[in-house]
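Format notes (please read before filing issues)

Several people have asked whether sequences and structure tokens are stored in separate files. They are not. Every record keeps both together, in the order shown below: the sequence lines, then the token lines. Line labels are part of the format and must not be stripped during preprocessing.
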Amino acid sequence: MVTDREFRDLMAGVCAPVTVVTAAAQDKTPHGTTVSAFASLSLRPPMVTVALDRSSAVLGLILASRRFGVNVLGQAQDDLALTFARRAADRFAGVPWHVENGLPCLEEAPGWLACRLTQAVEGGDHLLLLGLVTHARTVTAAPLVYGHRTFGTHSGFARRPRRAITDHVDALRR
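Then the structure lines:
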């Protein structure tokens, strides 16, 4: 049988996207936690998966409200990821955010999804949440990823030359 350490060490080598999953309490107080267990599940209908530890306060709010938000973080947002990974009372203090689709949304996150919980699946010490995406917006940005116990980005994307928007507009006029 594989040990906890062997499994953690192996999984450390698997790069994962970094997100902040959010939910609102009944009194509208925002709550959020850093999550790297996030993935696309389906295109039709648009669905994602998020895994949360059973002891997560955010998980309890999601199960009660049947809704959650996913803020997909960008390359230079490791401080934001660390803020929401801490066990602080108010992780939103000093963080620009607003309510979007009834959920806390981090203003500086390049990606945002509002989801309706369709199913919670047992998964050891976590629950795997299946969410139907009801709203999405994104801006093109290098993603924040976590691998080998450190934050980074997709280096090829970060180095890729980008054409100015005026070049794209001019190309459409031709």
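For reference, the curators noted about this record: The CA atoms of residues 96 and 108 lie 7 Å apart. The two ends are 63 Å apart (CA to CA).
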